[in-house]
Amino acid sequence: MPRFPTTRTAVRAAVLLTAALPLWVPPPSAAPGHGAPCTGRRITSWSVDPGPAAAFARYGNDNTRLDDWTGGDGTHSVRLPDGRTLWLFSDTFLDRVLPPPDPRGRPYRRRTADHGGTPLLRHNSAVVTARSGRPERTLTGGTPAAPGPLFPDPPGGGRRWPVAARVEPRVPGAHEKVVRVLLWHRRPGSGRWIFGVPHSTEVATLSLPDLRLRGIARTVDQHSVPDPGRRVLYGAAAVRDGTWTYVFGGDDPASSRASAAYLARVPAGRLGDRYGWRFWDGAHWQRRAGRAVPVLRAGGRRGVGSAFSVVRAGEGAARSGEAGGGGTWVLITMDAGRGGAAGLRTITSYWSCSPHGPWRGPNGRLTPPRPGAAEPQYVAAYNPQAHPESTAAGRLLLSYDVNWLGPPGVPPDAQVNGDVRLYRPRFLRVRLGP
């Protein structure tokens, strides 16, 4: 995303996916258009939530079907009107999960193909969970005998990765609801771009309640930007605020360990309409994506990972479906600006009184636990994603992905497929406070 899309991107992706200084916090102020005060916020406490991870583990380990999910990364979610939740995954393993071959061997399960060999890897999928949180089915494309990605690979090769999603009217004012899923379209690449060259942002439409794919529309085309590292893919987060949906994205510079964050906004009900998109140019909302400027620039200890999340924090947001609401916006990211192992180990945050900033931070550091796999020093954590509709008792559900990134020249496939605890999401409960 670039987020370790396959187990073959280890070393370069580690650089891409990659401080807490005391920060003066100004007095409370009202955010534009809101009566609730805006105060500085950060993660003040956290704990592991084993429930969602255990639910996905039971589902992934079940061999009743062999065309369903056994692991994936990305881990975006959207609550559906009937109470179910749609979980969106990027690169996804299918096929069979086996117990350890020998009780005296490694005490964890492994992935394999139905008849041995390498399990199926598809570029995206979705998992539907019941109101209770229990995973019920995997959504893919193709056929049961030959499952493909839910969002088909683009003509000519490449991949589509689902990121943020929203439920909105099919058209503005319509009673019928649909799911809009933002997609990152990447063309085939090699070397620096082994995970795909950034190309464009697309929006897929899924019907409700059957979740059938009804179409994919290109909304932000970036392929004409000469330097792929300066192309912005939107959809890291999509936050509804009144009649607007604010869509955050990031660039992918080759010369920096961190990305810069950008911002667009779209009228509610028009995520799939490219003519409705506007981009923040530092002073105004602009029709041309090429005139957008970062709302959070990388440099020094600042910057975001290529995948990050944004929520509202404060009075009233729980009622609006965001995590907390009110006047404060909180951006949660890997601590990419610090460099080194921090971008693959620790989570930090920024806050602002408006989506276009100024963003203050980074504030605090959280080091989530990683599974104790073989050679645990090579296990990376990445892609923190907030799930505000699953907020409970004021504690926000936050997921993160894990992968194995061994030394150069060491194929990671055996590690990831040999230990199903890798390449499955893990979950925390975090509290946002002053």
Describe the structure concisely for a colleague:
This protein is mainly β and 434 residues long.
Describe this structure in words.
The chain has helices spanning about 10-15, 50-60, 315-320, 415-420, and strands at about 30, 35-40, 40-50, 70, 75-80, 85-90, 90-95, 95-100, 110, 120, 125-130, 135-140, 140, 145-150, 160-170, 175-185, 195-205, 215-220, 235-240, 245-250, 260-265, 280, 285, 310-315, 330-335, 345-350, 360-365, 380-390, 395-405, 425-434. It is mostly beta strands and about 425 residues long. The chain has one domain (about 10-434): Tachylectin-2, Chain A, CATH 2.115.10. Strands 19-20-21-22-23 form a five-stranded antiparallel sheet, with no helix packed on it. Strands 3-30-29-28 form a four-stranded antiparallel sheet. Strands 5-6-11-12 form a four-stranded antiparallel sheet, covered by helices on one side. A hairpin with a 4-residue loop joins strand 22 and strand 23. It is globular. Residues about 1-35 and about 315-325 have low confidence and may be disordered.
